[in-house]
Fold:
Amino acid sequence: MKGNKFQLVSQLMRGSWLIDPGYAAEMLPLVAKFISGEPVSFYDDDENQDEISAGFFMAQDPSGRLVKMENVSESDIPPGSIAVFQQRGAVMKETFCGIPGTADMRSQFLEAMASPKISGAVVVADSPGGAVNGTFELNQTIFESEKPVIGFVDGLAASAAYLILSGCSEIHASSSSAMIGSIGVLITLRDYTERLKELGIKEITITANTSPEKNLAVIEALAGEPGKLQAELDAVHALFKDAVKRTRSEISDDALRGSVYLADEALKMDLIDSIQSFERTVERALELGDIMQKNPKIYV
Structure:
């Protein structure tokens, strides 16, 4: 997936994040080299690695066996099919080199769910989270679906990835080793003052008299007064918690403090509904889709 790291580093250097801090920290050595002017490769080692499919369809054949369908037109999809969407890798708003962005996923989701042949959806996540921008919109779209949507944790659903899944009516994890949570918000600032001095560069910022609060939260944070910036992050975290509680009303505040849990603990804390296979999750979506078709007002 060529260029994936470049986009991730670019995002890490600016903006608020809903991401597992450990994953973000793995990219910081690249950021440090980039700032220092050292040669940096922003490409994954395996340039021939296949792109991640943003989605596909699942249906049951006459014998009840699940059949996967990729790159098919709507005319080839049998009635009662399930649309499957994948969020793998860092969550970004824009699609980049095979990694589906939340904006494109949202458009594809709306298109698929508008089809009379689609009875429901499964959203698969294996992601440490990512950018705030675009994630709440996808969560809201999933939440508002008139057809059943089930979330599936295929290894990791942290922060923004969990926010996406929290729009689903149910969330299931692939195994006891799956990790779920990191419901928190962070931003990383870097003070380049000393490095610029070494390079003989003096930075001068001039703000219009009529916009004295322009970038004030960041300026004050770099000066050791993070109050304004922390208040902004608190507001985003409050929105995150509210989004989770819409579908998981029994969840405790302890589960929303930023920790990551293995699936068994996540199940006890109501972050997920069960530990089961992807196939069983698709079958559950088919079951709910059948119920919805017989009782359409259930999901309206």
Residues 75 and 117 are 9 Å apart (CA to CA). The domain at 4-187+230-299 is CATH 3.90.226.10 (2-enoyl-CoA Hydratase; Chain A, domain 1). The chain has two domains: 4-187+230-299, 201-227. Confidence is low (pLDDT under 50) at residues 46-52.
